[in-house]
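User: Teach me something about this protein's shape.
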Amino acid sequence: MGVNREKAAGKFVSAVIGAGIIIWIYSAFSITKFPDLLIFSTLLLFLFITEYYPIPIWKGLSALSFPLLYTIELLYGWGIAIIVFGFMVGLVHALNHRPLRIVLFNPSQLLISFFGAVHLADLMLFPLKAEWSVIWYAETRMILIVVLYYVFNNLIVDAVLLIRPQAYPFKIWKIKTISESLVTLFSILYITLMFMLGSQNRGVVDVFSYIFFFSPLVAIALISSFIARLHQEQNRLKALYEISTTFNAHLPSKNWLKQAELPFLEFLGTDAVLLFLNDGHSWKKAYENGGFSVEQDVSPDFIRRVESNPVMHLFNKKNEDNAWAFSYFHHSIKSVMLAPLMAEDEVTGFLITGRTRVFSFSAVDTQSMATLVNQLAVAWKTKLLISEREKRVLLEERNRIAREIHDGIAQTLAGSVMQLETAQRVFSQKPERTKQLVAVSTEKLRGSLKELRESIYALRPYPTERIGLHHAIKTKIKSIKEESHNIQIKFQVRGAPRTLSTMVEKVIFDIFQESLQNVLKHAEATKADILLSYSNDQVFFRIKDDGKGFSLYESMIKAQAEPHYGILNMNEQSESLGASLHIDSAKGKGTEIKLQIPNLVSKEAF
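Assistant: First, the predicted structure itself:
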């Protein structure tokens, strides 16, 4: 169905081009008056400027050239007006490196609209020409031509958009129509002003008169165009800033791109975008937007082509040789740009984007693509390094538990076995000695069993892994309240919660447990306030009590002499994440413990 509609749209465009060429040739034979060279050249120059520097309308652009076109028609007839208008529009599109189909279609639709508007207006007003005054007739004819011109022009554009398989909702049509209506109103007012000034007897109308009158029109076109371009660049910089800050906020989360609203389409100015990443083991689709993608896995042939030639690929039109680059998009995508993500001379991903128009990518687009790809490459490499660090920390934790089991429990079990074997040998000769050995072995086995249970518990999924950080903190607070501790505990979450990495949640929960345990055992506090805050720059955890406080210096000396799960351990855990731990306490002034974790290390790997 979509293919048939695409073909129908193509046939309609070809018909418009054919009709436009016929009208353009026919107009050459309809020239009856040859223009004044100086005035005509001035009008042509202004016409070119207004066409080359259109003002922004809706999602496209619209030129303020109609007052100039109508003036040429008024002075020299519609034949010359159509000839020069068609040539100028085609020249502007050619200078902008637009594809041949666009170079032919856009002038053709405008020529058809103007030709139809002029002849239909003259036909409708012919019976009134003799009855009306010259001024009223000219004004009415002008208004009718302007209105018909914009109606015909928009009907042709609407027909193309409706025939094509892409959606063309009423909301978009409404915005476009309102925008074009404003341009129509502006043209009517400007030409009306020309009639008003022309009706006054001000002497000879020479080239300076036209320069004076149309200079504001040209200035409006130039200024509006420059402002639009500056605004476009501002939006692109804003989009790039949003992308960069979003990377910092969501960078290595499990769904680091899918859960973030990244303005890729706004920055690139395209209709579809796909990002594929390699985590060192496999290729996966990490991000997609635009609604033109086709669900399929990364093919080995595609990866081979990208890795064998790791440069930016630009395909402005689909053919048999580059069909592989279009394979991830719907057939509506007519041009594609692809760029690899490079890290240490290795392809770690690729970004591919497309537009629904052929030959629609320019040098500026390739520069934007290169900028975005560089950002992505750095972000992806950083995320992989963070992931490797977290894996290393988890591995070190497992190795520590293994060493504790080997050096503690295993040695105790071996000693107990030897004592039981000794007891077995001396049982008949020294029953009291046997009883003593069994008792000692039993006590050691009980201790080993306790250590073994603790090690097994350490290897089990942490509470934060099972139920999440927030729920784990609330559950712990609830259990403390059920134990009838005479203390008020308040837990508050600020900002938009995000999914933190397993290691980060574990460190926060461990510091929370240790801090709260110290409050219950030593602080003699009546209340404790707990805060977990999420911001664009960091994740912040704080626990504050109104207890008796302590001397931080004395506690550090004690912790070094008797290492245990206390201040030193909390500090080591925070340092392992690249986070910072601050403890503020003094005797009689309570205690405040703050943990600040940068967003760059607060997420989980891909």
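Now, about its shape. The mean pLDDT is 80. Residues 264-385 form a domain with the Beta-Lactamase fold (CATH 3.30.450.40). If you'd like, I can walk through any region in more detail.
User: That's plenty for now, thanks!
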